[in-house]
Design a protein that fits this description.
Number of helices: 6
Shape: globular
Order of helices and strands: EEHEEEHHHHH
Strand order of the largest sheet: 2-1-5-3-4
CATH superfamily of the largest domain: Beta-grasp domain
Radius of gyration: 17 Å
CATH class of the largest domain: Alpha Beta
Number of domains: 2
Structural class: alpha+beta
Largest sheet: 5 strands, mixed
């Protein structure tokens, strides 16, 4: 049995007795009771289990929990709240980017990672960025609209500076540089 220390949704966890072959998706659902991460196929085909690992989208059914030791994991529960949705959650709701909702958590987290890498993607870039996340209900049109709406909302929330104007704070410098 192994020991794991990781941060999940901003909370540090230290757990003993973690089975070495326990998948991250099962660890999140069973050990931490974070059931927003769905189990769809167990073969990395559907993307329903997508989480952010150090800010990057990964399929949690493809990695062992112990591989997340020392890392930061963000699940759907960690990006917003019922009182204040993340802009991507808000956009999926407003643009009808979901139907049954089973794929939605993975789609949202993959889309957040996509916008981290490319804040203003076109339709082709959105569709390419969401490859590996399957939806059997929507036909993807409203999902693409939702990602575009979230990109616009997230861009509008960023401070606008004149070209060549230096960042006003170290935090703004990190945001401009794209890494945290």
């Amino acid at each position: 049995m192994g020991r794991i220390e990781l941060e999940v949704n901003g909370t540090r966890h230290e757990l003993e007795g973690v089975e070495p072959r326990l998948l991250l998706v099962h660890f999140l659902r069973e050990r931490l009771a974070l059931t927003g991460t769905h189990i769809g196929c167990d073969t990395s085909s559907c993307g329903a289990c997508t989480v952010l690992l150090d800010g990057k989208a990964v399929k949690s059914c493809t990695m062992f929990a112990l591989q997340a030791d020392g890392r930061a994991v963000t699940t759907i529960e960690g990006i917003g709240s019922s009182a204040e949705l993340h802009p991507m959650q808000e956009a999926f709701w407003a643009q009808h980017g979901l139907q049954c909702g089973y794929c939605t958590t993975g789609m949202i987290l993959s889309a957040i990672d996509l916008l981290r890498r490319n804040p203003d993607p076109d339709e082709v870039e959105i569709r390419t960025g969401l490859e590996g996340n399957l939806c059997r209900c929507t036909g993807y049109e409203n999902i693409v609209k939702a990602v575009r709406a979230a990109a616009a909302a997230m861009a509008a929330a960023q401070p606008v500076r004149e070209a060549g104007e230096p960042p006003k704070s170290p935090g703004e410098l990190l945001e401009v540089g794209g890494s945290r």
